[in-house]
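Hey team,

Filing this mostly as a record. A colleague (T.K.) asked me to run one chain through the structure pipeline before their review meeting, and I want the input and output archived in the tracker in case anyone asks later how it was produced. No errors, nothing strange. Just documentation.

Input sequence:
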Amino acid sequence: MLFTDVINSPLLLVLLLVVAFLYASVGHGGASGYLALMSLFAFPVTYMKPTALVLNILVSAISFYFFYREKKFEWKLFYPFAITSIPFSFLGGMITIETHYYKIILATVLVFAVARLLGLLGKEKTVRKPLNIPSALCIGAAIGFLSGLLGIGGGIILSPVILLLGWANIKQTAAVSALFIFVNSVSGLFGFMSKGGTLPVSSLSLVIVAVVGGILGGYYGSKKFNTYTLRTVLAFVLGIAILKLYTT
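Output structure:
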């Protein structure tokens, strides 16, 4: 099968729509899900990182718009993470690692994604605690570097951390995560391109589908919306991708 046929595969596009919808509904861009799908459909690793970053930028921006419109965003919760994550994401984006190690690191991050989707990480605390600035700066730097390195936005790691530490509720966390993902993805993409990386020009269909899913997910997610069944299905798909990444 030609690569162009793989990109336009109906099954891939349907799964991509579901991924974008679900991730946008919780303030995420979906890069970990996109990377999992591209791995399942045997995309070249050189194609995966820039494509995931582009889709992430679009979907996280859409998601942030809807959560911001619902007045869920808090600047004071966002900026300490962003200050360090942006430069470190650029640094990570400049680095290209060997395919085998890339897959192992990505698979490990996807374990967090599955746990997050199943509600195993980041339960909302009943009592909110004040943000610890030094901790937030360190967390932002670590997640930013990993984001740029893999081609993700880092929200799948940041949001459970915020919730577990009791720094925000679910909706506030979603809003902060969405903008965090956006700035990290932009920074990571610039870092990737600064080292001679090029953007794939054959992914227009993926962009269109992801944008549609992001709009729907951002709209419904910023309201009260329960997507437990769909998240369980997506977690199963990601689980298959994890096994494939670990064994290839």
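Quick notes for T.K.: The chain has a mean pLDDT of 84. The radius of gyration is 16 Å.
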